[in-house]
Amino acid sequence: MHNHAIEVRRLTKRYGDRVAVDELSFSVPHGSIVGLLGPNGAGKSTTLRALVGLVKPTSGGAFVDGVPFSRLENPASHVGVHMDGFGFEGGITAARHLEITRLAAGAPRGRVAEVLEEVGLAADARRRVKTFSTGMTQRLGLAAALIGSPRTLILDEPANGLDPDGIRWLRRYLRGYAQRGGTVLIASHQLAELEQVVDEVVVIKRRALFAGRLGDLVTDDADSLESKYFDLVEGASA
Q1: I want to staple 43 with a disulfide (CB 3.0 to 4.6 A). Which of 21, 39, 70, 111 is the partner?
Q2: What is the chain's percent helix, strand, coil content, to nearest 5?
Q3: CA 131 from centre of chain
């Protein structure tokens, strides 16, 4: 087993003259919840997409369990992904969506019922996805990420559209997942919320401004993740 569930090593991605990420390096230890933070355009989505094989690095690399995503055997058992742009077919039911996901992941037949239960959507399994609230859609996205029983989750703004009850549920869910040995990389703008769940943070603005334990960044009670975040981001050269 590799020391880290996720490693980003000197990742650079250019689109023509624009540099989306520049020599970015950080790692995510097994069993931890790590927050990936940065302003819009800082390269968070590019980094996540490079990790799951949707973006080819210009140089450097992004690794899950020690290898690039494209070289993972049965990737759904290594990493579950919930990102914007992973759309749902509105006309099908939640159960049908997950059945398609299950077949693609090669997961056992009973897995659909299990993940629906896990994310609190069992009662809504037969509803069409287009009738779902934003929060229910987020839960369905998480269920799809979990279908292959992965050891690592990569989540992009998973709390978007959740009400306070849903946010509390997500926080407890992720904490339990990590306590069972799972690893979570979570990109979010919700700093106050993130502060309650992450072990480590990576603050990026095309490159890493800080990568380490939350307690090493927010060192006293008068401070918050939000204040430290703005110190870093506003102090960084454009």
Answers
A1: 21
A2: 35, 25, 35
A3: 25
Pairing verdict, β 33-37 and 18-29: unpaired
One-letter identity of residue 72: L
Which CA distances in Å does 4 have to 13, 103, 152, 185? 22, 28, 11, 12
pLDDT tens, residue by residue, 23-73:
999 999 999 999 999 999 999 999 999 999 999 999 999 999 999 999 999
DSSP string, 83-115: -TT----TTSBHHHHHHHHHHHHT--TTHHHHH
**pTM of the shown model:** 0.94
Q: What domains are defined for the chain?
A: 1-72+193-238 (3.40.50.300)
Q: What is the DSSP letter of 69?
A: G
Strand order in the sheet with 59-64: 18-29, 4-15, 59-64
Taking only the tens place, the pLDDT of each residue in 186-220 is: 999 889 889 999 999 999 999 999 999 999 999 88
